Amino acid sequence: MTITAVGFDLDETLAVPTRDREAILTDAVEAVDAPPLSRESYLRVHGRNLTRESRTPIFADLLAEHDAEIDPETLARVYREEIADAIAPLEGVEPFIERLRERYRVGLLTNGPRMAQRDKLRTLGWADAFDASLVTGELDAGKPDPAAFEALVDALGSDPGETVYVGDDVDADIAGAADAGLLAVQVTYDGGPEPSPRAAAHIPRERLIADLPDLLASL
């Protein structure tokens, strides 16, 4: 088997928040005088809105649960700006992606509403960093649905069995990629998900840039 393509998750894989996500949500909520919203409740509703244009429906649902008369579009915008201000790439990731593209087709598949994820890519300067960049807000399905991964391999012009997908989330990234026939490589880090037995390999996030090229060559 020869690996011809590599796909990456975005959040917590190639880019990490410089502030705690709970704190970011709290700051956004306080900025618009909304009632307290927990990160747990946000993630619960977020999972139902992976193929949306923006986070507005997420916050509309959350605010409705509290009977809050706050404009969800305003809260979505403030939260998007807070996230963009607090995201940072792994050190050395840009030349790393460039080197990979010399040998492989390299893509991105990230879960989330279109505006939020595209804004992150613009903030990071990665609008053209990949051969294909897919946001589930622009697709008919989000990870872990195999259709999301099928869209990625179609965009890369690769076969699932010749494509490696690198991500951190046990369900969305690892199980989703494996179910779609891709080889899944899990990025691990302190406080992150436990290593999944379904992953073909595990790489500590701080070793991703150094170790992935040799791993790809060995698969």
Please render the helix and strand layout as text.
Layout: E1 5-8, E2 15-17, H1 21-31, H2 39-46, H3 56-65, H4 72-85, E3 87-89, H5 93-101, E4 105-110, H6 114-124, E5 132-135, H7 146-156, E6 163-167, H8 170-179, E7 183-188, E8 201-204, H9 208-218
Parallel strand pairs: 1-4, 1-6, 4-5, 6-7, 7-8
Antiparallel strand pairs: 2-3
Helix pairs in contact: 1-4, 2-3, 3-4, 4-6
Give structural notes.
The protein contains 9 helices and 8 strands. With 219 residues, the chain is α/β, with parallel strands linked by helices. A 6-stranded parallel beta sheet has the order 5-4-1-6-7-8, sandwiched between helices. Strands 2-3 form a two-stranded antiparallel sheet. The N and C termini lie close together (7 Å).
What labels describe this entry?
16% strand; 219 residues; six-stranded parallel sheet; 8 strands; 43% helix; 9 helices; two-stranded antiparallel ribbon
Short description, anyone?
This protein has 219 residues and is α/β, with parallel strands linked by helices.
| H/E topology pattern | EEHHHHEHEHEHEHEEH
Q: Give the strand line-up of the largest sheet.
A: 5-4-1-6-7-8
Average pLDDT confidence is 95
Q: Give the CA-based shape.
A: elongated
Bin the strand percentage.
Answer: 15-25%
Give helix % range.
40-55%
